[in-house]
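Exercise 7. Given the encoded structure of a 343-residue chain, write a plausible sequence.
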């Protein structure tokens, strides 16, 4: 029998993204971003994002169906990000997906954006190796998770106590005048700098922290240290600051991820979310995991940042696992907890 075709819709932030998969094969991945409309504000403006989703939705679905060389009636199921994210933005996706599923008479899966980030890996690498430890690092979330079954059982081991990792990149980029979004800008600037030029602090890594909150993160001390350094150092070397700041984040993320692998005895690590596109994080993760005998999987950089393929991928895994679809109409949940994989 042919593998089911699943269309995924993602609108949790500023990307209107449609992905289509057949089983684990990616057929289309269309992304219309309103990032340029937000850039001059230095961050995403929810009202602008919602309006842009409305404008981009139908043309994006049309394009995805054409790219996949299918027709709408070939779709077996629709999946949509139900949360977490900006509520107005999510609602555009949920209403569109609900209308599409109803019109086609096909099941609708409302899925978790964070679980979708992790599941996109299954389009690139072979069979899922559940259980796995997952480091999820995006603009809105940073957490360390134990994934026993990506379609139904995710346990949070720790999370950030203040900023998300991507948010720290975005804020430091802004104070350094490198633009928005900050992650790619810092990644680029850091290429010509020295990661050991400045010894920035590693958040929550004292022996007391390791004893009491081993899998939590904090980036506010680092942010303050960088801001102080910039203020007190006229003519600072941008590349060195970017590289040293990035190194602190990468170091802490991986120290804690590998500690979680060791403590749980799970020798598999998935790194997902926008920050997983970071070139230094990818390189150091490879080195350290090889050394520790941990199997590392990171989706290709283009699939790390928000996209529709990840939503379609999770939908496809739900279908393959025989999970029941959700109701045909539901509310978006802007603060959907990571443990809740689907509605
Ligand atoms: O997952 P994502 O696309 O959206 C959310 O769900 O938040 O993540 C966006 C975040 C932004 O903060 C962006 O600066 C960061 O991912 N990011 C990066 C890189 N590319 C995107 N951070 C570090 N290095 C990168 N190359
Ligand atoms: Zn995301």
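Solution.
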């Amino acid at each position: 029998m042919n593998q089911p075709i699943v269309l995924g819709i993602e609108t949790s932030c500023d990307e209107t993204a449609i992905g289509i998969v057949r089983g684990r094969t990616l057929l289309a991945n269309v992304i219309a971003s309103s990032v340029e409309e937000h850039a001059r504000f230095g961050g995403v403006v929810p009202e602008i994002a919602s309006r842009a989703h409305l404008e981009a939705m139908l043309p994006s679905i049309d394009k995805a169906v054409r790219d996949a060389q299918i027709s709408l009636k070939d779709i077996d199921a629709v999946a949509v990000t139900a949360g977490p994210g900006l509520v107005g933005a999510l609602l555009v996706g949920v209403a569109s997906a609900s209308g599409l599923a109803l019109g086609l008479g096909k099941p609708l899966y409302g899925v978790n954006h964070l679980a979708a980030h992790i599941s996109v890996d299954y389009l690139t690498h072979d069979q899922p190796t559940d259980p796995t430890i997952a480091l999820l690092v995006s603009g809105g979330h940073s957490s360390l998770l134990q994934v026993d079954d990506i379609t139904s059982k995710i346990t949070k081991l720790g999370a950030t106590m203040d900023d998300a990792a991507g948010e720290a990149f975005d804020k430091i980029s802004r104070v350094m005048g490198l633009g928005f979004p900050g992650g790619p800008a810092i990644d680029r600037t850091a290429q010509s700098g020295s990661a050991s030029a400045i010894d920035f602090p590693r958040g929550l890594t004292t022996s007391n922290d390791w004893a009491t909150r081993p899998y939590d993160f904090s980036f506010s001390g680092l942010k303050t240290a960088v801001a102080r350094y910039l203020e007190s150092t006229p003519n600072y070397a941008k590349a060195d600051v970017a590289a040293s700041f990035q190194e602190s984040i990468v170091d802490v993320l991986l120290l804690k991820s590998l500690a979680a692998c060791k403590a749980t005895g799970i020798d598999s690590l998935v790194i997902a979310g926008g920050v997983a596109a970071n070139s230094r994080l990818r390189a150091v993760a490879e080195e350290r995991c090889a050394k520790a005998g941990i199997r590392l999987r990171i989706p290709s950089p283009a699939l790390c940042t928000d996209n529709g393929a990840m939503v379609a991928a999770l939908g496809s895994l739900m279908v393959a696992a025989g999970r029941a679809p959700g109701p045909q109409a539901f509310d978006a949940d802007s603060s959907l907890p990571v443990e809740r994989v689907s509605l």
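Remark. Residues 238-264 form the longest helix (27 residues). Students should compare their own answers with the one above.
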